[in-house]
Write a structure and sequence with these properties.
Layout lengths: L22 E4 L3 E6 L11 E6 L1 H11 L4 E8 L2 H13 L7 E4 L6 E5 L7 E5 L11 H4 L9 E5 L8 H12 L5 E4 L10 H11 L5 E5 H8 L4 H10 L4 E5 L5 E5 L4 E4 L12 H14 L4 H16 L11 H10 L3
Parallel strand pairs: 1-4, 1-8, 2-6, 4-5, 8-9, 9-10, 10-11
Antiparallel strand pairs: 2-3, 6-7, 11-12, 12-13
Length: 333
């Protein structure tokens, strides 16, 4: 799995979900464009097109593992919006009932600059603003948040209105049901400053049962990049589980009932660092729905993340269940 030319194989036209989803994600969507060579964008001569955005990738990852997954977002009424919706429903088997169209804003683009491969720079084209930040209550009125197994929300949803109020309304309806997951997902481009992000995230933590983020994201959310202290502060809000990503050191999982364990990473040769966290999220959700505990869910999440980091793309390269099983059993991607 050490080359981006080694891609997953599946049916080219998966069936659409036939009933209510098991996983619903809410948030960012874009057309993603990836160079096939490492280095600054000025040296790039060709790009590969895919679908992206944190919430979108997590939904794709869960669907790739066999889950009924839906994404709640908004695209422009343009050719790129049509491309995204078609890809989600026909290539990835993601429920698009709650992907709505904006009548004036354009579908966002995101360019990955592999400079370096391990920590690519993302160049966002979301001006003057992205449609996915304009979700309004009517867009989400029929989302069955009261009954689904997992509701996954990235923190960027709270960076501006009307998205913030709309998503807070979903959380009020959800009533902190198991599992309501906050992905701290820090993207500085979406916020006026860190203080604004800290204040906004702090007001919604009480709605979530699971909080996931790396050390920097924890610092912004709860004021410390110490994994132990960050987990304590997250659990103090009433959450059942805090997952702190430690980069090359793995993932720390702390739970309200006293478990604190570091889950080791799987060794890989990195092809592109983008998408590994989203693959982790999809496998984490799949594992929780399968009845696994938080630690084992993180272990499978690490396996899925390693697979995607060893490939070029995000959505298109999300792993299948047998691939995650293979990495978990062999100990390497």
């Amino acid at each position: 799995m050490g080359s981006h030319s080694k891609r997953s194989t599946t049916n080219s036209n998966p069936p659409l979900p036939a009933s209510d989803p098991e996983v619903v994600t809410v948030g960012r969507i874009s057309v993603d464009l990836y160079p096939e060579t490492e280095g600054p964008m000025r040296d790039v001569r060709s790009l590969v097109k895919s679908v992206g955005g944190t919430a979108t990738n997590v939904a794709v990852a869960a669907a790739r593992l066999g889950r009924r997954a839906a994404v709640v977002t908004k695209v422009g009424g343009d050719a790129f919006g049509d491309d995204i919706v078609h890809a989600l429903s026909h290539r990835f088997g993601v429920d698009t009932r709650w992907v709505t169209l904006h009548d004036s804003l354009k579908t966002p683009l995101a360019f990955a600059e592999l400079n370096p491969r391990s920590e690519p720079n993302i160049i966002f084209y979301r001006e003057p603003r992205a449609p996915d930040m304009d979700l309004v209550p009517d867009d989400v009125a029929t989302v069955p948040v009261e009954d689904i197994g997992i509701l996954w929300i990235p923190a960027s949803r709270f960076s501006s209105e009307p998205s913030r109020s709309t998503v807070e309304g979903l959380l009020q309806r959800r009533q902190r049901a198991t599992h309501t997951i906050l992905d701290l997902d820090w993207r500085h481009q979406f916020w006026p400053d860190e203080a604004n992000a800290t204040a906004a995230i702090g007001t919604v933590l009480e709605h979530f049962t699971v909080v996931i983020g790396n050390r920097e994201e924890c610092r912004i959310a709860v004021g410390t990049d110490s994994p132990d202290l960050a987990a304590d502060r997250i659990l103090a809000t009433g959450a059942q589980c805090a997952v702190v990503k430690l980069g090359g050191d793995g993932v720390m999982v702390a739970t309200a009932d006293g478990i604190c364990e570091t889950v080791a990473p799987y060794p890989i040769e990195v092809v592109c660092g983008l998408g590994a966290g989203d693959a982790f999220g999809g496998a984490f959700c799949d594992s929780l729905l399968s009845g696994l505990d938080f630690v084992e869910s993180a272990r499978r999440g690490n396996a899925a993340g390693a697979i995607v980091a060893s490939r070029l793309l995000c959505a298109d390269d999300m792993p299948y269940r047998h691939e995650v099983d293979e990495v978990c059993s062999s100990g390497a991607a």
